[in-house]
Amino acid sequence: MAIRVNPKLIEDLSRFGAEDVHMCYHCGDCSAVCIHSDEMFRFPRKSTRLLQMGLERKLETSLEPWLCYYCGQCSEQCPREAAPGETMMSIRRWLIARYDLTGIAGLFFRSKVAEILAIIIVALLTGIFFLYYGFTFGNIKIYDGPNAFLESSFIHKFDLILGSVLGIFLLINALRMWYLIMVKGNIIPTPWWLYIKQIYLLPWHFFSQKRYAKCESTNSNNVHMPWLVHLGLMIGYVLMLILVMVFLPALQQGPEIQWSVHIFGYLASIGLIGGSVYFIYSRRKKQQIQYQKSHSTDWVFIILLGIIIITGVTQHILHRSGLFEAANIVYVVHLMSVVPWLFRMPFSKWAHLIYRPLAMYFAAIWAEAFELQNYPQNVIPITQT
Amino acid sequence: MRIGVFFCQLEEPKKFNIDSVAKYSANLPEVDTVEILGVKPRLVSEELSVRIKKGNLDRIIIAGDTPGYFKPVFTKAMVLAGHNPKEVYLASFNEHGATGEMALERAKAIVACATRAVPFSLAAIPAKNPVNHTTLIIGGGIAGIQAALEIANAGKQVYLVEKTGTIGGHMAMFDKTFPTLDCSACILTPKMVSVGQHEMIRLMTYSQVTDVSGNPGAYHVKILQRARRVDIKSCVACSICSDVCPVSVESEFDANISKRKAIYIPFPQAVPNAFLVDEKNCTYILSEGKKCGVCVKKCPKECINLQESNQVLEIEVGNIILATGYDVLDVRKIQQYGYGIYPNVITALEFERLTNASGTTGGKIVTKSKQINKKTKEEEWFFSVDGTPPKSVAIIHCVGSRNKKYNAYCSRVCCMYSLKFAHLVKEKIPNVICYEFYIDMRAFGKGYEEFSDRIKQEGTFVVRGRSASVSMNNGQMVVKGEDIIQDKVVEFNADLVILAVGLTPAAGSQDLSRILDISRDSDGWFSELDYNGNPTDTEKGGIYVAGMCQSPKDIPDTVAQGSAVAAGVLRSITSGKGIGHLSSISLSEIESRAKSIITL
Fold first, then answer.
1. Is B353:B173 a contact under the CB 8 Å cutoff?
2. Contact check, Cβ <8 Å, B465/A28
3. Is the pLDDT of residue A61 over 70?
4. Which residues of chain B form CATH 3.50.50.60?
5. pLDDT digits (tens, 9 = 90+) for B241-253
């Protein structure tokens, strides 16, 4: 089969943040210094090579970008200042756009204007919708209970519908990822039972993020422990998501605080606030190499999240202090930021929450399939050249 | 003729404004179009050809710091436009030295010459002046020695000034030369002796140039002759003085891997073959004459005078040759290889001394042995004759070279000497495993590629992919790297790691550039007048560069340049006309000269 080359691949990737790929002269420093680079999967040099040669098909079926957590060691040691870490990050963004069949992700990553415009449109539509609903069926002076401005059972239903739509999007993207990596990119037969054997890896990597922790152990620069912060942020998200999707009516009851649910809400909020503050601090300070370059989508993400946190906390305080009218208005603003933020989820970096564990899962399946086939694994010491 | 001038930069010039050069070029005769295309422009031949057709341009001038980069695009555009593609000329600011104080004037002159299709170096020839027949050579390495011998053998007086106690420079430290594997000392020492004995060469070791004044052809030079404290004429290098000297310090000549005394001779074949006193470590001098002084009492020839003081010499010379050579990059800055932390990580120069038959182990390649210092009770690692030979050796190329953080340039000699090391290791230690880690193998000279093949055939593992790190695992050094060709990560144990460290300009070159008012390039090497056409001349009349101080080069090239520079000096002496400073010629003069030269 002929190998297709896309000579404009580097140019395209530059819009995803990879600016210095052409600088690389392949000394192999980065691959050797990377703690995750092993016999099966060597990166970032190889990915950089694919990019330089414009091997689009190979790049889109490669697993390596998802195995990198951007500790920054490679970029720090790179003699050409080619920023291999940033290249891997950009390839991940590009892959997200590739996995997404709608093309929305690609549009958002490539054009900051399109993304902001889409967010504003969705936010305005959400605002109009909820204001119309509230004024038609509810009373602005009531926050909880049956005649509330935004009745919790309705919001709950809305959440579930939105959640399912997004879930379907994510699932389709995940399937696409599976197809690209395991079907198109596979070179050896993979028995189906391996999928079942390794399935435990999915929840394991999702919740522990053990691989990320490994980065931390090697990098002397990571004084801030990004793994721990990331884990906190992630747990915050997941808790909040579960609370909103399942326990929303309990959260919005009044006047007493239902502690059995709310305690988790507070914990999740702490995780989210802590993570976001760290995120903003690091990206502003730019001390660590992995935070020196920020893509526009990173900032959109964090600004929206900031609005969500602020409005969420404010409406909660207003509600509990009896200022229902103000609480309702802030609630609408909160929803106006939550809906576009959630809607953006499958089309943004956020989607890595499923791609990462999936990648680890696929990697393990591959490794075992290789072993089963007695495929020539790379052995040390090397043979004479 | 209608001429179009296009300004294409790779970076914004620091010393002058492109706009003012553009304005100037617009007023030049026959210039029709002037366009500033900016920094790193993306040029498309098709678009350019439209512009060329529109302006009906017969000749294109590409002006910029490295205009050759854009030439193919313009040539193609000329073809597409149906014009003569040969009429594309370059106005290279970098190449012709539009970097110094007169950068703007120079840039204008370069463009003016290009519009006339006249090579800049043909138009810009400064006025001639009478020349003093004596020559000063700064630096007594192989470049300085070669130049000195060439000029002296032509019967002209030479002053050779050397900073250390002996001539010979770095080449005297080496064991073998690549690719012939000749003994380095066997080539060098006869030349050194000739210099020492030549009646037309006045050798001044342990000396430095402190001041230069005057004009081309008649420079007035002040030389500080530091007190050697041993009379060169009567010393017979019997080494009784150093036998009794109680001070022991690291030997610079042995790349700090062995010890010498405070009164010492750098190496047995030194020229002049006499001892000298290291004033920074001598007990007598440090105590201001109160302690020690044993060497004076023991010297059978009574040639030691510890009270001797520095002298300043003043000489008149016609030409000055700079041959100051290089230093090795301080590899402690590069932490990933563990130099200075792990005892058996050594630099290339240290290995040269280790493997040299006159070195501390007599040429035996060993790993360092441990001993406890009696005074400080600390562990010390040193090379001992009884040390164990390494079972595996890793040689890492490009340490600090081709690296944007240290030296962006290629040091040019490392690939070849590293291959030579592999050969020496294989030759001296049976059954040793030897790895070479390289990025690109730059075997550029006559017989070099064949040498590289030979090393591979000898069984050295030549791995494409520079290793990233050296680490310690239970007292065993582990080298990790990526083998790019075989597509695998290589991790293996090494007993000895040799770092092919990059080269930097010699420590004193900054001072010298100030004293002589010679410009240096961004990496610190002395700037030659014209990289291609005039590689040994400088902007200053009667001042020349030779050898490593101009740019990294290997021994054959250095020797060749040493001879070449002598040709320039002798040309000026025999013709009686030296060349003045390039800055002495004005823009209008260059313009009128460019007009008068007819090119085909």
1. yes
2. yes
3. yes
4. 135-226+310-325+506-582, 328-504
5. 999 999 999 999 9
